């Protein structure tokens, strides 16, 4: 699969490494331009190439957005419209600046990114610390295999993202749409940062865990 990654920090580079390892065709971008990513590309190797954010958005059959939430209005909207986009972003007001709608919980960061880009958005990889994402992948059936919560409206898009999660060694747990479901795994939500198996995470959801 062609995967475009926007944001080449801790989460973007960790996902790039995983997706290259399992055989995908991956491009990665940041805000400073492809030349600034030469070292990362050399280190990860394989199919990985550095491009602009616009090119990553155009290239990917799936595009992963891994930037500070406060910069989402810089995303290339035309190329992301209708595309399957994985949103890994979290809202941290101390880093991103205050967003009154989010402070009042009138909407969520993912819904705002979806509205801005027109993307077919799936929220995933936002609730796991980048070092666990790097190190805690395990084969299917391993009792220590960790869960990654996901949310979104489109079941086909969620199935694609769930497949990627399984292929890099984790179990996806579907929490529902990005509004209600997304709140369970955004900062402050019960599943945010929770280091659980899929069974334990599903138990929490069945028990009504939200925030
Ligand atoms: N760190 C974690 O453990 C973790 C876990 C889950 C989710 N998250 C969330 O995932 C997102 C990324 O986190 P991170 O820790 O990977 O951040 P990070 O290490 O600070 O990296 C951020 C990346 O975003 C790029 N970027 C910023 N604005 C951009 C733009 N307009 N276009 C393209 N690229 C842009 C930066 O590029 P430049 O350096 O060139 O500006 C940088 O490569 C955040 O929303 C974070 O809250 C983080």
Automatic annotation (TrEMBL):
Protein name stated in the entry: NADP oxidoreductase coenzyme F420-dependent
Key word Oxidoreductase present: yes
Annotated ranges, domain Pyrroline-5-carboxylate reductase catalytic N-terminal: 2-91
Keyword Oxidoreductase: yes
Pfam families per UniProt: F420_oxidored (PF03807)
Family annotation (PANTHER family): DUDULIN-RELATED (PTHR14239), REDUCTASE (PTHR14239:SF10)
Source superkingdom: Bacteria
Record-annotated membrane-spanning stretches: none
MF GO annotations: oxidoreductase activity
Keywords from the UniProt entry: Oxidoreductase
């Amino acid at each position: 699969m062609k995967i475009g990654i926007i944001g080449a920090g801790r989460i973007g580079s960790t996902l790039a490494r995983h997706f290259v390892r399992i055989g995908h065709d991956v491009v990665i971008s940041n805000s400073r331009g492809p030349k600034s990513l030469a070292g990362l590309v050399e280190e990860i190797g394989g199919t990985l190439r550095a491009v602009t954010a616009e090119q990553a958005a155009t290239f990917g059959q799936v595009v992963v957005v891994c930037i500070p939430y406060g910069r989402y209005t810089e995303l290339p909207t035309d190329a992301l419209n209708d595309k399957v986009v994985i949103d890994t972003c979290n809202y941290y007001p101390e880093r991103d600046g205050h967003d009154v709608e989010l402070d009042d919980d009138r909407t969520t960061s993912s819904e705002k990114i979806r509205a801005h880009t027109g993307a077919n958005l799936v929220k995933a990889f936002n609730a796991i610390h980048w070092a666990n994402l790097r190190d805690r992948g395990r084969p299917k059936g391993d009792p220590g295999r960790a869960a990654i919560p996901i949310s979104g409206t489109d079941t086909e898009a969620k199935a694609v993202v769930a497949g990627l999660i399984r292929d890099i060694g984790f179990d996806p747990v579907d929490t529902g749409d990005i509004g209600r479901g997304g709140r369970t795994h955004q900062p402050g939500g019960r599943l945010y940062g929770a280091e659980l198996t899929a069974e334990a995470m599903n138990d929490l959801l069945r028990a009504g865990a939200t925030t």
